[in-house]
């Protein structure tokens, strides 16, 4: 495909980061939307970051896409932490003895992967270098 011609490792890592941001947003909404721990701001920042990254690819400015996704991912993570801190503190001090569910760890892993992939994409070349 001509769209993928001449693209470097950073381009493919960025595509993975975009997919991971979308997966994170969808999983987060599915798991937390029925609870009081849902942060619609975190959900929105993940979606907006993925959408802006896609737009930057379309307008042929992919060098800025990893940074956009990184910033929106970090802001989304902060909103997630802000809305889930009461649950974490109630489990940590023993008010709620059930412990952390698998979905809690899953969301943490998804957020970390989204941010890690966007950081990697920032430092990897977006295009192949000519030899």
Can you lay out the helices and strands and say which pair or pack?
Elements: H1 9-32, H2 40-58, H3 65-92, H4 102-123
Helix pairs in contact: 1-2, 1-3, 1-4, 2-3, 3-4
Word description of this protein:
There is one protein chain. The protein has 131 residues and is mainly alpha-helical. The protein has one domain. 71% of the residues lie in helices and 0% in strands. The two termini are 22 Å apart.
Q: Which terms would index this structure?
A:
131 residues, mainly alpha
Q: Span from first to last CA?
A: 22 Å
Binned strand content: under 5%
Give the overall average pLDDT.
Answer: 88
Q: Mind telling me the C-alpha Rg?
A: 17 Å
Number of helices: 4
β-strand number: 0
Order of helices and strands: HHHH
Which residues form runs of ≥5 with pLDDT under 50?
none
Shape: elongated
Largest sheet: none
Helix % is: over 70%
Tell me the count of domains: 1
Q: Give me the secondary-structure category.
A: mainly alpha
């Amino acid at each position: 495909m001509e769209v993928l011609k001449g693209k470097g490792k950073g381009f493919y890592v960025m595509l993975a980061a975009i997919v991971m941001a979308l997966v994170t947003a969808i999983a987060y909404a599915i798991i937390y939307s029925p609870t009081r721990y849902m942060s619609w701001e975190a959900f929105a920042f993940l979606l907006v970051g993925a959408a802006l990254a896609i737009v930057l690819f379309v307008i042929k400015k992919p060098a800025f896409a990893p940074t956009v996704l990184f910033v929106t991912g970090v802001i989304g993570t902060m909103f997630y932490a802000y809305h889930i801190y009461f649950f974490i503190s109630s489990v940590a001090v023993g008010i709620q003895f059930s412990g952390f569910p698998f979905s809690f760890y899953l969301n943490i892993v998804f957020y970390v992967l989204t941010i890690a992939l966007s950081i990697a994409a920032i430092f990897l070349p977006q295009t192949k270098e000519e030899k």
